[in-house]
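Tip: read the tokens left to right.
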């Protein structure tokens, strides 16, 4: 095990070190306590669990006698175990829980599911309750949702949803309400809310216009902040926007979140900002021909701050503390297990820089959202149609 931590501010940008490539993604529990990834290289891949909530991060390797395949998917649970999803053949997927035991690795086999069609079974993001884990398989006409960990008898089919569903965003702290992006036939993509306590009951969540493709990317249950991607303001061209869960106010599409030569994708929202969505820090991954770096933004701000990524950053992985520190998992030859801490710089008026290029000072100056300087808005999102208020806690 190796333990080390890096704490920097958003003004820091120059670091040395050779990045260690991650064969697969890096998943983090909803409470930010644990992370999991595939470590190793070539034909010697194994699961690795990171502990992120202590004084220093540290990694625990979880190798088995048989190495993992590159397409193995991992999901950490709040008790420190790691869920492993393996594709055995074209249709069958097996699930196991790995955990450290003495000098070795323990494995609890949970069972398997079979999915018709060529598409794989995909794990949903870690459930907010930290106990359950879900997987989906999207067929041409319907999508199957399974509870693959946390049930009483192994993998259980939870619901069969009409349409092709993708994505997956949790809308509450209990793990009851799940948002999925659904397409029915040849129609547009619309986000729906799925009530897991009512057998997968579906209700509308995003409906900006009749024809627009509206997808939910992130949601924060504390503040109600939603990060949305939609082509409603520019048909044929999707843009990033934000709204508030349960609000009748329109979705806004800030100009500062649009870069001409780079793709911008949000990956983490600051928790703990109860009823204050405009004050939440939002972390964004920026990808361009020259590489990937980090964007830091608040809905109340007029600009997105662009920051050079720390060395070895797992692009698109990170978690916010309630105090406003963005912690990014990193791994280099010198520091195999580390966290880089970033904070949103205070607002000021720097000289404008070309869009799509990280700025030394970590800031980018946007143009106004509209000619009169007010945020661009579309029709209100009928978030009130989803059963997300006045409901009993899961129990």
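Filled-in amino acids:
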């Amino acid at each position: 095990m190796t333990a080390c931590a890096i704490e920097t501010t958003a003004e820091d940008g120059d670091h040395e070190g050779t990045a260690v490539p991650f064969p697969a993604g890096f998943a983090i529990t909803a409470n930010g306590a644990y992370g999991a990834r595939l470590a190793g290289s070539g034909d010697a891949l194994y699961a690795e669990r990171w502990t992120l909530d202590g004084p220093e991060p540290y990694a625990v390797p979880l190798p088995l006698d048989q190495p993992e395949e590159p397409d193995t998917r991992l999901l950490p649970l709040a008790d420190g175990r790691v869920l492993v999803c393996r594709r055995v053949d074209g249709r069958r997927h097996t699930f196991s829980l790995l955990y450290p035991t003495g000098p070795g690795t323990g494995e609890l086999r949970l069972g398997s599911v079979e999915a018709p069609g060529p598409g794989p079974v995909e794990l949903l993001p870690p459930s907010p309750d930290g106990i359950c884990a879900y997987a989906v398989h999207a067929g041409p006409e319907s999508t199957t949702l399974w509870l693959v960990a946390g049930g009483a008898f192994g993998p259980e089919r939870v619901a069969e949803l009409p349409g092709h569903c993708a994505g997956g965003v949790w809308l509450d702290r209990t793990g009851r309400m799940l948002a999925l992006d659904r397409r029915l036939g040849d129609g547009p993509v619309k986000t729906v809310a799925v009530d897991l306590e009512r057998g997968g009951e579906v209700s509308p969540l995003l409906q900006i216009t009749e024809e627009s493709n509206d997808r939910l990317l992130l949601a924060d249950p504390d503040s109600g902040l939603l990060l949305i991607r939609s082509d409603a303001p520019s048909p044929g061209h999707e843009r990033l926007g934000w709204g508030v869960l349960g609000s009748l106010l329109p979705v806004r599409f800030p100009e500062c979140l649009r870069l001409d030569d780079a793709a911008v994708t949000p990956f983490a929202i600051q928790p703990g900002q109860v009823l204050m969505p405009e004050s939440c820090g939002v972390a964004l991954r920026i990808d361009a021909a020259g590489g990937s770096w980090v964007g830091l933004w608040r809905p109340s701000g007029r600009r997105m701050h662009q920051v050079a990524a720390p060395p070895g950053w797992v692009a698109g992985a990170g978690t916010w503390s309630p105090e406003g520190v963005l912690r990014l998992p990193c791994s280099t030859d010198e520091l195999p297990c580390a966290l880089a801490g970033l904070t949103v710089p205070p607002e000021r008026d720097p000289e404008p820089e070309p869009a799509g290029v990280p700025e030394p000072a970590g800031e980018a100056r946007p143009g106004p959202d509209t000619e009169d300087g007010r945020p661009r808005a579309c029709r209100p999102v009928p978030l009130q149609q989803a059963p997300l208020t006045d409901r009993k806690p899961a129990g």
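The CA atoms of residues 148 and 155 lie 4 Å apart. The two ends are 38 Å apart (CA to CA).
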